[in-house]
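[job 0417] fold request received: Asp/Glu/hydantoin racemase
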Amino acid sequence: MIEPHPLVAMIHAVPAAQRTAEAAFAREFPQATVWNVLDDRLLDDARAAGGLTDALRRRMLRLIGHVLDGGARALLLTCSSYGEVVDTARVLWNVPVLKSDEAMFQAALAGPYRRIAVVASTAPAVPAAVAQLEALVPQVRPDRPLDIVTALSEEAATADDPDAAARHLADALRAAGGTDVDAVLLAQYSLTPAGDALAALAGVPVLDGAGAAARELRGLLTSPGGRTAAVAP
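[job 0417] inference complete; emitting structure tokens
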């Protein structure tokens, strides 16, 4: 049975990601009842450990279990650094569990882009995003080549406003040799407010994960067929 207001849980590592995801759901999936869970030590502890440890993976699984045992009909994990834990969660629970940028990556790979940049403002997000993107290539575009450029600007994380964050990201993209990319993917929800300004600076489409994830879950939870594709700009 399709519920009129399905409970969708979101687990966040930073408050900015929560605000971005809530805005995306209000715009793309207003029927959803949103449940936010924030652990603002997730990224700091991953940085201190040099990446995900078994203890951090178990911690995320406990958070996932908490919301799903609490009645959530679907879950969105907005922290890209913990995306690999979703693979385990999908084995343990029979509900939709989405990685932060999975829908965005699928839409980007289905599009006409040959050379794609992945930009981030926190180091752990870069390899996590690239790993997810590369893992989807055989499924979505096995017969078309793809070049991936990565750019990291930690200055963007502390920028005073979205325009300043966009300038830092654009500078990092130029330094990484990404001036000829066909599209830019934001590896963190917290960077979404800088998307429009970055698109103007880079002159190419900039895709964000929050809106794509909201559209994906809307299709999974409200459509009789159970799925709609998240369309890239």
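[job 0417] notes: The CA atoms of residues 26 and 111 lie 26 Å apart. The chain has a mean pLDDT of 92.
[job 0417] exit 0
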